Amino acid sequence: MKQFSVFFFLFIFLTIPIQGQDNPGGSLFIIGGGKRPPSMIKEMLKTAGLEKDDYIVVLPMATAYPEEATRSIAEEIGAHSDTKVIGFNFIKGEAPELSRLDSLKRARLIYITGGDQNKFMEVVKDTPLHEAIKEAYFNGSTIAGTSAGAAVMSKVMITGDQNTVEEYQDFKKIWFGNVVTEEGLGLLNNAIIDQHFIVRGRFNRLISVMAEFPDHIAIGIDEATAIVVKNGRAKVVGESQVVVFSKPENLSNPDGKLVSFDNLKFSLLSPGDIFFLEE
């Protein structure tokens, strides 16, 4: 009987999901930029599941105006919650204070502002700050971001630059290898995020990057719209739409530039719709 009990409890222990790199306990709230309607702010706070002693950390390193950006989102949150909002503007090349890193790891909601995603990652990439954000996410925190703060969520990050620039043209052709990408936070490993998507007509850019990374899901989020990601499931919230590309067939670029493929999987999703981030 004793031996049976040992094996029984060992079986239970081994089958309990353990939070880790492949099983995050937190959520992502990825906003496509533009205005943030009150309903979206409420949904973000609901997603975070804030309790009495929780607090929110704003990371404004993407913007040239960190104090103003922090104040703006703090005011929007303050209209719906009395949760404390703290701004941590970490500086490139400076060792982050351990007390701030500890506070970041324990924040129930981390919000990354808009601006320049490259600027943000120059401060964060491969630093203790990067690890602190990931640790918070995998231990149950919600990581939110808008515009540049949305772009940094994925491992493959669209920088906004292109390799071949023609006069007066901005991604006017769907060319293989034209979209410049860098490494982002890696909170999404199998998806690539583009923002301000429908308003700014970024279809060519997203199709181009999908052709370069055909095993990824390419997600374009419009302004005033967000996706809420939890356990591989994404729900659309806000006021506009989300575009999802995936699984191109017979992909080729015979002349080294122009892209060809068949049977692209395409979804146009509205608020309330759900899709899955397939592996």
Distance N to C terminus: 42 Å
Q: Briefly, what CATH class?
A: Alpha Beta
Number of strands: 16
What do we call the CATH topology? Rossmann fold
Describe, in plain words, how this protein is organized in 3D:
The protein has 279 residues and is of the alpha/beta class. It has a single domain, classed as 3-Layer(aba) Sandwich (Rossmann fold). It has eight helices and 16 strands. It has helices spanning 2-15, 38-48, 66-78, 98-106, 117-124, 128-138, 148-151, 203-212, and strands spanning 27-31, 55-59, 84-87, 109-112, 142-146, 156-162, 179-183, 191-195, 217-221, 225-230, 233-238, 242-246, 249-252, 260-262, 265-269, 274-276. The strands form four sheets. The chain has an eight-stranded mixed β-sheet, with helices on both faces. A hairpin with a 7-residue loop joins strand 13 and strand 14 (260-262). Helix 4 runs parallel beside helix 6 (128-138). The longest helix is centred in the N-terminal third of the chain and has 14 residues, at 2-15.
Which characteristics define this entry?
29% helix; globular; four-stranded mixed beta sheet; 279 residues; Rossmann fold; alpha/beta
Secondary-structure blueprint:
Layout lengths: L1 H14 L11 E5 L6 H11 L6 E5 L6 H13 L5 E4 L10 H9 L2 E4 L4 H8 L3 H11 L3 E5 L1 H4 L4 E7 L16 E5 L7 E5 L7 H10 L4 E5 L3 E6 L2 E6 L3 E5 L2 E4 L7 E3 L2 E5 L4 E3 L3
